[in-house]
């Protein structure tokens, strides 16, 4: 039996977002359309996928069994799209790469040099964004390939692959601050001082911090705020070393520094062309 791609997508999106209404908003369709699509899939399969008696629909035991198979169908479809792009070899005229300030390696610089030689006629654009802003730029077609720290979950239309090189993050404060004089700093002491927090455009209310907060969607701006003595922040070590002015001190705090994993991401609805796929492959190589 052949199942409607729309029904399968509605099912996956409902699982991802937690409700039929949220799935409808994500897919820009009416809730009734999503409900009908899922009902049609249930009829085709002959099982009930969601328990609709609770406030929010939850997967039934049958739904939990079906989910990995539907995910596998979409994963195979994504791989087929990638192969078709490679076989067609229709190189895109323009490539936009959105990059987190969190991640910076010599590997990245080497890739750009190779890219310049391999695709000299492509218009290339490099943007800086973080977390949800990277995902949003891929979803709306503003960018084709993105690098960001690993997220708890990703939308179904975003495909990711783990990179071999992560990002080391540490806690920094101005060298003249009293905490900078201590050999070790407790987290409860930090929470009495203003924290400089990363806040994206997509989720302006996603600041999770205790105590006073200043925020910015840019790690580079947070670095400047820290250098002006406005508070402490969690910053990439490479950013402080390369763009700082020697006025910040790395605090010794239990559990820090931390090495965060990083993903390369792209939209599976509008997958990158050969040049974008080449860049993804190079980013995934171990260096």
Architecture overview:
Helices cover 40% and strands 21% of the residues. By secondary structure, it is of the alpha/beta class. The chain has three domains: 5-89, Arc Repressor Mutant, subunit A; 94-165 and 261-284, D-Maltodextrin-Binding Protein, domain 2 (3-Layer(aba) Sandwich), CATH 3.40.190.10; 168-257, D-Maltodextrin-Binding Protein, domain 2 (3-Layer(aba) Sandwich), CATH 3.40.190.290. The strands form three sheets. Strands 7, 8, 9, 10, 11 and 12 form a six-stranded mixed sheet that branches. A five-stranded mixed sheet has the order 4-3-5-13-6, with helices on both faces.
What are the main properties of this structure?
single chain, 287 residues, alpha/beta, Arc Repressor Mutant, subunit A, D-Maltodextrin-Binding Protein, domain 2, 3 domains, 6-stranded mixed β-sheet, 5-stranded mixed β-sheet, 13 strands, 40% helix
